[in-house]
Amino acid sequence: MVIILTHLDSIERPITDKLSYDLDGNGAILVDNQLILSYMTDMFNLYPAKVSENYILDVKDGSFLYHIKNLNFQEKNNSKSKELEAQKLLDKILPPILEAQPKPKINLQKLFNDKYFKQFN
Questions:
Q1: Domain range holding 115?
Q2: The pTM of the whole model exceeds 0.70
């Protein structure tokens, strides 16, 4: 997720009726104009457009940090149930984008393993 949002302008983006992209500024992915995943400089923000709640995700690894309502950062909720809700919402966004990425022509991990195998064993 981190790579997708930080490089949204340069990755393959599937063209579907459900997904649209905002490439201005930091970039965002919109699902049916109802769910938005946006990149901010210090966090990822996942939020349903018609509800005033936000799921805040870590900018380093995309992990769930907390849930807030009405942009009230004083009342952060980092419960497991909110983390599962965020994961369900992300599952609507990420799989089509990941499937659209081209497969590498060369397995670089295999080449590395072949060359440096003896040094690690």
A1: 2-120
A2: yes
